[in-house]
Specification:
Structural class: mainly alpha
Number of helices: 6
Radius of gyration: 15 Å
Strand order of the largest sheet: 1-2
Largest sheet: 2 strands, antiparallel
Strand content: 5-15%
Order of helices and strands: EEHHHHHH
């Protein structure tokens, strides 16, 4: 899998021959920082992502459209929202998906933890 146009990394994991996508939270945090650094919704966006609340995250992102204050950021934000809307299941905890398949995730690190170091 390659890098999406928004710069997010997609990691494909095979379950029952169907690819499952997980977005790396660290990468999304970096992307959101670009859009929301001084925005009042920045903290709420980060909390929704940290809690794997994909529905709440999408609500926060959509609510921010038109309030960014920089026209050059509005179009890429809308494109990112469109991309994330295509794969809402990708905004989940990959470890939870593995546990649902009976895989022990004890000792696993969060997705993107290598980028944080």
């Amino acid at each position: 899998m390659g890098t999406g146009q928004s710069g997010s990394h997609l990691v494909g994991t095979i379950f029952n021959t169907m690819p499952r996508l997980s977005l790396i939270a660290f990468t999304l945090l970096e992307i959101f920082r670009v859009f929301f650094r001084d925005h009042p919704r920045y903290r709420a966006v980060r909390k929704k992502l940290a809690n794997y609340d994909s529905e709440g995250l999408m609500i926060e992102l959509n609510s921010a459209v038109g309030t960014i204050g920089h026209e050059k950021k509005e179009e890429p934000l809308e494109a990112l929202i469109a991309q994330l809307s295509q794969y809402p299941e990708a905004l989940c905890d990959y470890q939870e998906k593995l546990r649902e398949k009976g895989i022990d995730t004890e000792g696993f690190r969060p997705m993107g933890s290598a980028e944080e170091q």
